[in-house]
Amino acid sequence: GNSVTQMEGPVTLSEEAFLTINCTYTATGYPSLFWYVQYPGEGLQLLLKATKADDKGSNKGFEATYRKETTSFHLEKGSVQVSDSAVYFCALRSEYSTLTFGKGTMLLVSP
Amino acid sequence: GAVVSQHPSWVICKSGTSVKIECRSLDFQATTMFWYRQFPKQSLMLMATSNEGSKATYEQGVEKDKFLINHASLTLSTLTVTSAHPEDSSFYICSARTGATNYGYTFGSGTRLTVV
Predict the structure, then answer these.
(1) Do B110 and A43 touch (CB under 8 A)?
(2) Over 70: is that where the pLDDT of A96 sits?
């Protein structure tokens, strides 16, 4: 079956530091890949997505590239801000339209 | 954009009682809604898929008689945890597909259930 593995948190960074949150997946076929973000007290929001190999999703300074050869979709940001503190979920969608999530990685950014 | 309103945000109930969680699509019609459960430090686990006007489809291992899902209209789906026990304490979150594509999922803000 499908599965998503992402690095455990919390990830603690200082403002303006470089961020990488690793995500690898196992899936049959050609899934679409997503990163969702959950800010404190809010629901999940789609951050970015990629639908095929070598696609790069980007939004709000965050990027992730769909790497089929390494089955990875690592999330990166060049310079994090305090407001980026949240829980980040990597997810994939199979051809049957259900989402499979990773466990989530909490990011804490200090001033 | 599309908004899914979920409430209550948190609820504490006694063992043996039932709790209803509502999920409403505010500015769109959701023919399909999904209910997830999240244990501490675990991933979101799909519990069931709710289709308007028909019975929900439950994932393996989810007790349909314990977690009653009703999707009576295009804007409302409810999850009722019946005869709750402490092990049902968890974070429940709903989502709805907002468009024709498979990328348009909008999530509710979640409900923290604590059974004492």
Answers:
(1) yes
(2) no
